[in-house]
Write a structure and sequence with these properties.
It is a peripheral membrane protein. Keywords: Antibiotic resistance, ATP-binding, Nucleotide-binding, Transport. InterPro entries: AAA+_ATPase, ABC_transporter-like_ATP-bd, ABC_transporter-like_CS, ABC_transporter_ATP-binding, P-loop_NTPase. It is found in: Cell membrane. By secondary structure, the chain is of the alpha/beta class. The chain has a single domain, classed as P-loop containing nucleotide triphosphate hydrolases (Rossmann fold). It is 37% helix and 24% strand. It contains nine helices and nine strands. The protein has a six-stranded mixed beta sheet, sandwiched between helices. Helix 8 packs across helix 9. The longest helix is centred in the C-terminal third of the chain and has 19 residues. The radius of gyration is 18 Å and the shape is globular. The termini are far apart. The structure holds adenosine-5'-triphosphate (ATP). Adenosine-5'-triphosphate binds next to strand 2 and helix 1. The site of adenosine-5'-triphosphate has 11 residues, from strand 2 and helix 1.
Length: 245
């Protein structure tokens, strides 16, 4: 499988009844790359990563994860992917340690439980049931579980939303230290994207409207920060749309 991009998306389309969520999106992510997916609310970010993870089937176009089709090669792709989705619900009555063991058991060569718990500072909570963890602790656990199987591709949706500043820094350091994994990071936090992402795709109304390094997006928009670039590029697109319609 050498030479395959970690993730390849070509002319992807997805609609929910008459609502088009993803329109003709194409990009590829290299092994080891941290790739940000940005966009306004409802732009199609979660739908895009769900299509990549094989949780939804595309209506058009194709997705490949290390050369495999997430729909057709479901089992193989599951072993290559680690997924942290927004507000993951896990088994309430299991403890942190039990959930970590459960997830490790799904994979042939999992990370050690102690390493996973340390990464997200939950070692002291090993014996605590999931439903007794705070919201931020639950989220940190979902990140550890996404990394349990040494995935080749990690999907992180809203990685550190709701986490305190120290936990955010800690998680950022863990993500930055990943070397083999390609990371798809959906985020609204521009500081996080600037810190972690090699390249960024900017989506608006289901379309890819900009793609490049954070510095390239800033330069393209003629602004001085990624936040300003986001507002300018998405705003510009909306104005063009309004003129056309
Ligand atoms: N299960 C669904 N059924 C119908 N429409 C959906 C469904 N999921 C998403 N949509 C619609 O598809 C579009 C894209 O949604 P998506 O969740 O991918 O956006 P997003 O960019 O992740 O947004 P946010 O930043 O708010 O999380 C939206 O218009 C949304 O209303």
């Amino acid at each position: 499988m050498t030479g395959n991009p970690a993730v390849l998306v070509e002319h992807l389309h997805k609609r929910y009844r008459d609502n088009v969520a993803v329109q003709d999106i194409s990009f590829s992510v290299a092994p080891g790359e941290v790739f940000g997916i940005l966009g306004t609310n409802g732009a199609g970010k979660t739908t895009t990563v769900e299509l990549i993870a094989g949780l939804r089937a595309p209506d058009g176009g194709r997705v490949r994860v290390l050369g495999l089709d997430p729909q057709r090669d479901r089992r193989a792709v599951r072993h290559l992917l680690g997924v942290q989705l927004q507000e993951a619900r896990l088994h309430d009555s299991l403890t942190v340690a039990e959930l970590v063991e459960l997830y490790r058991g799904f994979y042939p060569d999992p990370r050690p439980a102690s390493e996973l718990l340390e990464m997200v500072e939950l070692t002291a909570k090993r014996g605590t049931r999931f439903d007794r963890l705070s919201g931020g602790q639950q989220q940190r656990l979902s990140i550890a579980l996404a990394l349990a199987g040494r995935p080749k591709v990690v999907v992180l949706d809203e990685l550190t939303t709701g986490l305190d500043p120290r936990a955010r820094r800690r998680i950022w350091a863990s993500i930055a230290s990943l070397r083999e994994e390609a990371v798809l990071l959906v985020s609204h936090a521009m500081d996080e994207v600037e810190e972690l992402c090699d390249r960024v795709a900017l989506l608006e109304a289901g379309r890819l409207i900009a793609l490049g390094t954070p510095a390239e997006l800033v330069a393209e928009s003629g602004t001085s920060s990624l936040e300003e670039a986001f507002v300018a590029l998405t705003g510009r697109y909306v104005e063009v749309e309004e003129e056309v319609t």
